[in-house]
């Protein structure tokens, strides 16, 4: 007898799934299409012709490179901060018991649950109250608030699958705290941290709302794109940059997916 899992899905379900995928991904494909159009002032469909010249134009634009460099620096530092704080929070919540532990866990994940505009207004108010001028570091702090959550969620799930007996055995054999972390804990949670870091980088790289409230006069790449759409000079250049953003954010997300999918085996799990 054939199992339910091997049964073919109904045609209606297949059509609905295909329609959903098209709805989600056709706009992205249009971005790639208009990055090569010969029409520079409108989104004419179908494009009157195709050219590669906009790749060279985007390459020669110094404002694109400045925005790209700022986005990469912000995302890198925000991810580094998130890896440290998120891992420490995950270790505390998953490996110890104390009063208010669940409340602490809720407060850690709250920033990503709140609307971005609320987080942005809160950060802007806090910086203004503390008389902190808007700068590169205010953007980093703003991005770190939600990047920490991404790392925390990945790390805490993996920590809970690491057997406490492994840590106890390491200590019994004379290893200190750092050696236990390096040789026992880190190999078991490494892929989760790498996946969390990649997701955090991708989220920070294309963040708009929080950046709008914390950047001042600086322009990250998503902010640059938004302003170019409002005041377009060369529309295909914006699409070329958008195509770059899609590729830069897609690759870490795919890598994170495969890392977490292959990371189901944890040493000592369930013992």
Automatic annotation (TrEMBL):
Protein name: Putative spermidine/putrescine transport system permease protein
Transmembrane segments: 12-36, 64-92, 104-122, 134-152, 240-259
SUPFAM superfamilies: MetI-like
Keyword Transmembrane recorded: yes
Pfam family, one: BPD_transp_1
Protein family (similarity comment): Belongs to the binding-protein-dependent transport system permease family. CysTW subfamily.
Annotated compartments: Cell membrane
CDD domains the UniProt entry points to: TM_PBP2
One annotated Gene Ontology cellular component of this protein: plasma membrane
Topological relation to the membrane, as annotated: Multi-pass membrane protein
Record's keyword terms, sorted: Cell membrane, Membrane, Transmembrane, Transmembrane helix, Transport
PROSITE patterns noted in UniProt: ABC_TM1
One Gene Ontology biological process: transmembrane transport
Annotated ABC transmembrane type-1 domain residues: 68-256
This protein's record includes keyword Transmembrane: yes
